[in-house]
Amino acid sequence: MRKYAWVSAAVALLVLHAVLTPRTGTWEGLLRVADGARLSLAQAMPDLAGARLVFVGELHDQRSHHAAQIQVIRAFHEADRPVAVGLEMFRAENQHLLDRWVEGSLSLEEFLPIYYENWGMPWVYYRDIFLYAREHGIPLVGLNVPQHTIRQVARDGFESLTQEQLGELPEVRCEVDETYEDFIRRALGMHGHEGRAFRNFCEAQILWDTAMAVHVVGFLEDNPDHTVVVLAGSGHAWKRGIPDQVQRIAPFPMRIVVPEIPNRLDRAGVTADDADYLWVGLPLE
Asked: What is the pTM of this model?
């Protein structure tokens, strides 16, 4: 059975954010982590608008999280702030197809197969985001890498990648703090697993975050007037994920907003090392 261990690792990488369910509350809004203040999105916008990157996390199968994301995108657009949307849901190699969608040269019928080739969640979850971007000419930025690359690293480690697969990606190592290591172990159920199996899984997660960081930094450098609202699973969007890798490349000001998730990022345990804002009270389906 050991030869199939990498399959479990790869599956865990793909679903680790979708298996958690956020705790709902009677009040919906943004909890500012630094001081516990309860804010509306409008009250938080002056702070968010000062950032070049705003990460808004999600559990992929929760429509309320996607509704919250489009609120942030709309708030930037309606404030006449140049905004783009970074997508975990699309590979960077398909950027030309996202551009065609936004400019209107692809019909919905043509775009849907492209969407599903990039992402497995139902279109209806993300439909309003894609349609809003198209309607208002908001750039969509593909951030992801081919899943077979992530699966290969989870199975055989970073060193197994060819130079062609690497492209411009920097070398990654599994050098993480105790909190992030605990997150990885719980995501895969790897307590008691040491050595190469854990290292490979850790490298795959870090490579995933690093690749998305490289791609969003490239857009920011080419578009210095824009803020990018990054939509990604909360395990990528929290500060130890993509934001940490961005800071290793370029010190762009950023803010991190994540939905409340029990036993991971919730009101009882969230700290300023995890996020800037916790979006609480989002209803569940």
From this structure: 0.85
